[in-house]
Amino acid sequence: MATIAVYDIHKTKVSDIEISDAVFQSEIKEYLIHEAVKIQLANRRAGTVSVKTRSEVSGSGKKPFKQKGTGNARQGCKRAPQYPGGGVAFGPQQKEYNLSMNKKARKAALRSTLSYLFNHNKITVMDTLALDEISTKKFASVLGLFDLSKALLVIGSENRELELSARNIKGVKVLHANGLNIVDMLKYRNLVITREAVANVEGALQP
What we know:
Layout: E1 2-7, E2 13-19, H1 21-24, H2 30-43, H3 103-119, E3 123-126, H4 136-145, E4 151-155, H5 160-166, E5 172-176, H6 182-187, E6 190-194, H7 195-205
Parallel strand pairs: 1-3, 3-6, 4-5, 4-6
Antiparallel strand pairs: 1-2
Helix pairs in contact: 2-3, 4-5
């Protein structure tokens, strides 16, 4: 098993821990990462955009004038697209973008992303991220010690002080281990994860 250093909030190394090769040093399957990102972004779409067709707008279906003898082009009704207030021809309609990925492939994609970050030294393990109080300034100074301008913080259990201290810092997001996802891991440059969260992730992503 590979090992990784564990730091406290003062950037003092407190120990080394072994991490699972199956999770953090697995084969990097780029096609699975791409598929998982595509599915996650598609599932965020609401798909609620819609316009009314000529059959849905209000108005009479009566011909605006007789078929022949007026010199004008024949018309069916004022709900037609060429009339103001008429229906829209070939406009957008409600659509579901929901896609799915089987559990085995989703786990493999997460392992591939974690392995990519580990291989590029983008993972920092913290012994704990417990803070004495809610303070954005103090937590920003902690990030400054580690030179982390853009970071995804993964915690193993609820940490109210941390979550409230980090929420107003630009480029920082806090996630619970069970909410770990590929889009956020790729969006932020660094992954900061607590020792407890490492154990949770390893337990959930074992092949």
